[in-house]
Design goal:
Chain lengths: 497, 395
């Protein structure tokens, strides 16, 4: 330091320096404080943000908690509904009351979310009988039944359809049922059918943490109704089944009676056929002799006979012929009915059958100026028939047609293939018949009451024989007719396969 | 050199009949008569003794291991009732099974060591590559059992596994080992041989709210958080009524909102269920809690869960160098099942898409999953974890 420097100057310089340093230090301190204030403010902001964030987080957690709770309840209800649907399907597909309870097994109970299930049903003496017990011992169940039976107040409430639940019932009821069935959380529902109270369904959980929810109440209420309905269905089914069985027994007895009557009728019919057959045979033998002797007498070989006698003998001969024909028809019907006639089925051409008939019957038709036409398709298949019998069918039907068709009328035969048969139709423009005659037309000895029949003698066996012959060929015959408009006989005959 | 696998499943109501049917179906599927190992998973509906008897009738000489579960994961469905048998016959892989019975807080550590000794006895002098632990999920602190196991193996064998569970009622679970149906026990399966192991572990839960510090903790009990009683954090989030809940109700509720403890070394959150709140406000968790750790309330949703499952499957594939596994086993937290609901099946399909639709698989819903925090570090310290999906694949 130079010697000539004034101490005052030195002091002043030092003071200035000190002042400057102090000022700088003050400035630094101020700046630091400012920074600290800023940092504190920032920290406050961060803390505030964290706290806000935390508050938001708490809100999120609580909302999430609520959502999860709702989801859990929803899932539980969904599982319960699925289980209910499964149970419903199982119990409604049986009509056996025992099977309904068998199908409510342990796994279904678990699906419903209950550890314990008890179903008590009233028996015919109105006593409770256990039909299903899950999670209860036999002894406990017996004791529970005894206690429940004693509590008439509870039973009366149940009879009125009132359910009980650990969620909504009164404290008194809750305590009572808890002590009765030994579980913390429960539902006790009456099972009601059309006849009223039939039993109770009890479900419960011993676990104090598993509460009953409103969803459980609804679920069990539906299940109880379902069980009641199913049991009612089984009762109805049982009633219907019993009625049906009684009816079946009656039908069986009646059928037996009818079978016996039929057997009797068949026996009578056979006896009749046998009788007719025997009588006819017995009649035919003397008739042959009568006819033979009458013929011999008529030849005059035994001696001349006066004309009056001859005339009588001719009548004997003619009536004998009629009688022989009558007896033959009777014998034929009898044989066909009893199946003693064997049909000799051979292939035959329809056109030639009709042509033969035309030749045979033309003289008679000419006498009455009746026009005979046939309508046969070219491709009509051959028949598979006994021709001697079928000729009789056609001759009978055509003879009748000629008989009942007035002068100048028309007779038509038509035929067409129909599956395994040929359908023939013999149509005339005759006097026709009334509706009431048609159903009896094919009966033996039945003759329609009209003027022609009254004047011309007949046996009433022709159409009966026709029917028997057609049916012996597995065919069918029927008739349609209108008074004064004509008649058509329809019948089917088998073709060659 | 071949590995044959058959999976059988039955839902018959009788345990014996269901076990028999599942066994027969497994044998039929593999088209083999004799098997080295049968993994049996059964829901809590079934009597465990009858189940074992039914299995044993069909697998006379086979080693049996298994446990109860809240649900069985099958390739095409997830069932909450039934018995499944996963039968393996292999000339490449060796198996050893063992058990430690009647576990109590006083013998957890020793039981873990005992379990390893018993399993090694059955396994013989083969190369030890993997230990699968199935322990009673309702035990208070399986972390100590796990510690005993880890130390018995001198930290050189990777450990995975799960806690057995019942039908979500937390009453009683059971474990199977050979012809014994056990409870309060742990069973183990030691594997080794010509095999490659792939792990995938993920949870998908995200931290929520501000981080807090665990001031005081003793094993699985958190005493104070941020200078307050630990229970106050739960009260803040869930309301004061939380203290009125029973332990079971509490577990059910907090299962979806576990504590997430940040593990600095791994950079991952270790999740913990809350089992109970003690009178002094301490919180009892399912596994050990490190003192001084940062903790969050965690939240997950269906999408984050499914995404986590997909990532776990991809990590397995990555560890297997892109190869498809011979089979894989899924241990999935019950909480995830609860959260995903019907989406569980979709989650399984996402995993199968990565690991092969034809690869045989089985899985179970568990109460506590065991494994390292990161798939890539599967040889690292295993933890008892919660909310996890763990995929174990063998190639």
């Amino acid at each position: 330091m130079p010697d000539n420097i004034d101490p005052i100057t030195i002091f002043s310089l030092l003071s200035l320096t000190a002042f400057l340093i102090s000022g700088y230090l003050v400035f630094i301190v101020i700046e630091k404080n400012k920074k600290i204030r800023n940092l504190t403010a920032a920290l406050d902001k961060i803390t505030h943000s964290f706290n806000s964030l935390d508050e938001q987080a708490k809100l999120i957690v609580r909302t999430d908690l609520e959502l999860n709770k709702a989801q859990e309840e929803l899932d539980k209800r969904l599982i319960g509904l699925n289980a209910l649907q499964k149970i419903s399907r199982q119990i409604t597909t049986t009509l056996d009351a025992n099977e309904i309870f068998n199908r409510l097994d342990k796994s279904l109970a678990a699906d419903l979310g209950f550890e314990r299930i008890l179903i008590l049903m009233l028996d015919e003496n109105k006593n409770f009988r256990c039909r299903l017990q899950i999670g209860f011992s036999k002894e406990f169940t017996e004791q529970a039944i005894a206690n429940l039976t004693k509590d008439q107040g509870l039973i009366n409430d149940l009879k009125e359809g009132r359910p009980f639940s650990s969620l909504t019932s009164t404290k008194q009821h809750k305590e009572k049922i808890k002590s009765l069935l030994g579980v913390e959380h429960f539902l006790l529902n009456p099972i009601l059918a059309q006849d009223g109270f039939t039993g109770v369904l009890f479900v419960g959980n011993q676990n104090p943490d598993v509460f009953i929810t409103e969803g459980d109440e609804e679920l069990i209420s539906i299940l109880t109704n379902q069980i009641g309905q199913s049991l009612e269905n089984t009762q109805l089914f049982e009633q219907v089944y019993r009625s049906r069985q009684e009816l079946e027994l009656k039908i069986q007895a009646r059928t037996k009676e009818l079978a016996s009557a039929l057997e009797e009728v068949q026996m009578i019919s056979k006896n009749k056929s046998d009788f007719v057959s025997a009588v006819s045979h017995e009649l035919r033998t003397p008739l042959t002799s009568i006819k033979g002797y009458a013929s011999i007498l008529m030849t005059g070989k035994i001696g001349d006979i006066p004309p009056e006698v001859k005339e009588r003998l001719e009548k004997i001969n003619k009536h004998s012929d009629n009688l022989v024909k009558f007896i033959n028809d009777l014998l034929d019907i009898s044989r066909i009915e009893s199946g003693r006639v064997e049909m000799k089925l051979i292939r035959h051409d329809v056109a030639s059958i009709i042509d033969n008939l035309r030749d045979l019957l033309t003289p008679q038709m000419k006498d009455k100026n009746i026009q005979f036409t046939s309508e046969l398709p070219k491709d009509i298949p051959d028949l598979f028939v006994d021709i001697s019998q079928i000729d009789r069918v056609f001759i009978n039907l055509l003879s009748n047609a000629i008989k009942f068709t007035p002068l100048g009328g028309t007779i038509t035969i038509s035929a067409k293939a129909q599956n395994d048969f040929v359908l023939f139709e013999v149509t005339d423009t005759g006097i026709g018949m009334k509706e009431e005659d048609l159903s009896r037309l094919f009966s033996q000895f039945y003759r329609v009451d009209n003027e022609i029949n009254r004047n011309v003698k007949g046996t009433g066996l022709g159409l009966s024989l026709v029917k028997n012959i057609v049916e012996a060929h597995k065919g069918k015959i029927w008739v349609t007719s209108k008074v004064n408009a004509g008649t058509t006989f329809h019948f089917t005959l088998p073709i060659v396969k | 050199m071949a590995t044959h696998i058959g999976i059988g499943f039955s839902q018959k109501s009788s345990a014996a009949l269901a076990a028999q049917e599942a066994s027969i179906l497994a044998k039929k599927q593999a088209q083999q008569q004799y098997f080295d190992l049968a993994i049996v998973l059964s829901t809590a509906h079934y009597n465990p003794a009858d189940t074992l008897e039914g299995i044993r009738q069909n697998f006379k000489q086979t080693k049996i291991i298994g446990c109860s579960t809240a649900g069985i994961i099958l390739p095409e469905r997830v069932e909450t009732q039934g018995i499944a048998v996963f039968a393996i016959k292999s000339s490449e892989i060796k198996f050893g099974v063992g058990s430690a019975k009647n576990l109590t807080p006083g013998n957890f550590y020793q039981s873990g060591r005992q379990l390893v000794q018993n399993t090694i006895l059955d396994f013989g002098p083969n190369r030890r590559q993997l230990f699968i632990l199935l322990t009673d999920g309702l035990l208070e602190n399986n972390s100590i059992v796990l510690k005993g196991i880890r130390e018995a193996f001198n930290n050189v064998v990777p450990i995975v596994g799960a806690g057995s569970v019942d039908d979500f009622r937390f009453r009683k679970t059971f474990q199977f080992c050979q012809d014994q149906s056990l409870t309060n026990s742990a069973v183990g399966l030691l594997m080794g041989g010509e095999m490659k192991i792939g792990f995938g572990l993920k949870h998908g839960w995200k931290p929520l709210g501000k981080p807090r510090i665990i001031d005081q903790a003793q094993r699985h009990i958190i005493k104070t958080i941020d200078g307050q009683k630990a229970s106050s954090v739960l009260e803040e989030y869930f309301g004061e009524n939380i203290r009125k809940l029973s332990p079971k109700q509490l577990s059910r509720m907090t299962m979806l909102y576990p504590f997430g403890i940040y593990i600095e070394n791994d950079g991952e959150y270790l999740l913990r269920y809350v089992l109970n709140i003690l009178d002094d406000g301490s919180i009892v968790c399912q596994g050990d809690i490190p003192e001084g750790a940062r903790v969050h309330i965690m939240l997950g949703n269906k999408d984050t869960c499914k995404q986590a499952a997909m990532e776990a499957a991809q990590e397995v594939r990555h560890l297997l160098l892109g190869k498809l596994p011979k089979f894989f086993i899924v241990f999935e937290s019950l909480a995830r099942h609860k959260l995903l609901g019907k989406g569980t099946l979709l989650e399984i399909q996402m995993i199968r898409e990565v690991l092969g639709y034809t690869t045989p698989m089985i899985g179970m819903y568990s109460y506590g999953e065991i494994g390292a925090l990161k798939s890539i570090d599967y040889m690292a310290e295993p933890y008892l974890q919660n909310q996890m999906i763990m995929i174990l694949a063998i190639a």
